[in-house]
Design a protein that fits this description.
Layout: E1 2-7, H1 14-24, E2 29-35, H2 46-56, E3 63-68, H3 72-78, E4 83-88, H4 91-107, E5 112-117, H5 127-135, H6 146-166
Parallel strand pairs: 1-2, 1-4, 2-3, 4-5
Bound molecules: coenzyme A.
Length: 167
Amino acid sequence: MIAIYPGSFDPITNGHYDIIERSCKIFDKVIVGVAYNSEKSGLFTPQERVEIIKEVFKGNDKIEVDRFNGLLVNYVKERNIKVIIRGLRAVSDFEYEFQMALMNKKLWGDVETVFMMSSENYMYVSSRIVKEIFSLGGCIKDLVPEIVRVHLERKLREIKNKQEGRL
Ligand code: COA
């Protein structure tokens, strides 16, 4: 069975990584779906996020990385996907996730949302917090795959160079 793990992944963290790895043990194929979220201005472009995730899971043929615009259920219908995977970190995630799962079900009755509890180590991780820590010089070693750290370094350098060029 094919499942999709959708998110903004700006960037992918070890929390996401953990959910994807565990999902691979349950499903035949896991599509990591990078969504374009117009309400969140990203550090990385959606295409960059796709490339980074592909690098992280290079060699794992159970994982496909793709991006989608618009409604998740439209993508799900198009690809004949039956399961949406979401991770739950804390009780505070629950209400939002519950609303999304019910709404997706209402929009497309053939899809089920499966929730996976986040591993203890990643309960407190989010992409925003990783970016904040890194940009302020903190250590993110245990929070993201090494490849992501390298891309963050490159991205911040690019931004800094651009800003200096403007001065
Ligand atoms: N470990 C670590 N961090 C996690 C995590 C985990 N297991 N699960 C979620 N997060 C973090 C993310 O890093 C992100 O952090 P940020 O806010 O600092 O960037 C945050 O939690 C939100 O998670 P994410 O999975 O990125 O969800 P999202 O809210 O950005 O995206 C979509 C949700 C993309 C699935 C949803 O908006 C969507 O389906 N969009 C398409 C349009 C649509 O169909 N809308 C109708 C929905 S009913």
